[in-house]
Design a protein that fits this description.
Radius of gyration: 17 Å
Oligomer: single chain
Helix content: 25-40%
Number of helices: 6
Strand order of the largest sheet: 1-2-4-3
Bound molecules: flavin mononucleotide
Shape: globular
Length: 171
Amino acid sequence: MTTATHADEFVSLLKSLRAVRQFVDKPLPAAAVRDIHEVIRWSGNASNRQEFQVLWIDDRATLRQLADQKGYVKHLAGAAAGAVIVTWMEGDELNAFDEGRIAERIMLAAHAHGIGSSIGWFVGEGRAGAAKVLEVPAGRTVRTAISLGYPAEGALRGARRKPLGELVRRV
Ligand SMILES: Cc1cc2nc3c(=O)[nH]c(=O)nc-3n(C[C@H](O)[C@H](O)[C@H](O)COP(=O)(O)O)c2cc1C
């Protein structure tokens, strides 16, 4: 059962998740990586079809190759690990939704361990380029990557958000 303290801690974790794109050169502990992988496994997904796979990369040369692909993925170059989500459902809305859920959970599980992360999107030919680097079979979608690592000093920029009343409106 969730107690008030647990709820406070959990909500605080959710609220404090920020994008981190600069990392220190330090590997991720095996226990944290195992937790993140288990969270991926238990992520809810469309009709529980589980038509996705997360490719986990901690080889620096491969991370640099991915960072060179077209998109907003340069932060993969300095990451301790990268997660690339591969999907193959018919209907891109379903794939995109699953990717969003999985990506957010990876980031939250990492954050719970003090590990920073950011989403990055491959765009245009960057998607085929990333698929080639990772030897993904034809017909599968490669779009979303997450870079992970311990935050470098100054990596946590101040967050900007609209006032609550603009983002949530009681009707
Ligand atoms: C669908 C989606 C795509 C994103 N794509 C990128 C991206 O390609 N590159 C990147 O550096 N950040 C990307 N982000 C991260 C956003 O820039 C980040 O969540 C936003 O700026 C808020 O950051 P903050 O929580 O640190 O304030 C993406 C986020 C989402 C939800």
